[in-house]
Structure formats: structure tokens, C-alpha cells
Amino acid sequence: MSGILAAELRKLTSVRTTWIITGVGLVLVAFGAGFFIFEEQFSGPFLGTDPEVAAAIDQIGGMSPIVLVIGLLAMTTEFRHGTIGRTLQFTPSRTTVVGAKLLIGIGYGVLFFALGLVVVASLVAIRGQVPTVGAETWAAMWQGPVALALTAMFGVALGALLRNQVVAVAVSLIYLFIGETLVNQFFPEGARWMPFQALNAVFASEESMAAMPEGMILPLDPLVGLSVFLGYVVAFAVAAVVLMRRCDV
Known about the structure:
It is a single chain. The protein is 80% helix and 0% strand. By secondary structure, it is mostly helical. It has one domain. 38% of the residues are buried.
């Protein structure tokens, strides 16, 4: 298993697209967290309180689409370039191949959160505030990497189901930014149980919720949202393994 994990890691890190997309994601984290930390007109001065630090960390989770796309590419690149056959020659077990890619996705999600945390910590240090680390910050510290790891797994599983890279990326982003948004606009009670609405509940801080118009979104409790998204990930991962085992590549 260690051999295939090393091979999958090389595949992911040797592709320039991975580094470009990751870099863009970290720049967006810097913009999002920087606006929250340095902007004072709408949210007031950043004092480094426990809720404020947690909200700044939650900006990393706002880049979950970046992690989703990397997960999609980890699987669909094999089909796009026709290397999936070669991969299965070296590792005939399709379950093992999918499992290895899921594990690499977990690693990427955790790594992205760690890099984003460095960015946020640097901005807080530049702001000159001594952060207060309390219960909300600690919750953000474990919920963030878990949610992003699950997002990457979701991307890998969805990539195995759709296979076509262009279709997978396009369908995922359209669904994420348009599909769930429209459903949430007209049926917020039902929309909050959809995959990415449930995931967003993990990163919905009290500060961000207070700024939203009443009734615009009805998020689940963070732990409930995380559990719902985990259910989707497990279902898609099982479906991906079944499809890989039964269909030709």
C-alpha cells in the first residue's frame, strides 16, 4: 500500500496544475482573512478575541471548492490522459486504487488547511494583536481540516463516477455555485441538507451569520452539518468503488 500511496503522491505533486490551483486558493484565503482582520468599517476593529480568531480561521474553509477541484483532478486526470489502465496493471485491485486516491485526498485537504493557517496566523501577527485561543478557535482548528479532507474525498469519489475531467469540474462547480444556491433561495429548509450547504454550516461563524439577512440561510449545527456531509462522502465513495469494480476503464 505504501508503494501505491507514494505513486499517487507523485502524480498529484508532479502536475503543475496542482500547485497553481493551490497557490490561487491560498491567495484567496489571504484576501478573505485579510479583509476580515484589517477591514474596520463594517465589522469593527479586529481585537483578536476567541470568536474573531475562529472566524478568521473559518475563512480557510471558504476555499473548499479549491480542495474539491484538486480531488476531482486526482482521479479524472487518469482517465483524461489514459493512464488509468497502466495504473491498474501495476495495482489490479480497483478498490485499492480508489482507496489510495482517497487517502491522498485526505492528506491534501489537511495540508491545505495547514498552509491556510500559516497565512491567517501571519496576517494576525501583522495586525499586531495577541490572539485569544478558546473553545471556538479549537473547534475551528479541528473542524476545518476534517471538513476539507472530506471535501477532497468527495472530489475523488465524484471524479471516479463522472470520469470525464471537463464534465466533472464543470458539473461540480455549476452545482455548487448555482444549483444549491437556487434551491437555498426558494427552499432553505430543504437546501440545508444538501452536501455543500451542510458543509458550509461547519464554517458559518456567529459573526458571519449575524451579518446575513434573517431567513436568508438556515444552517445546520456545525457537527450535524459535518455528519451529513460525511454521509454523502461515504455514499459517493462506495458508489465509486462499485462502479470501478464493475465497469471497464
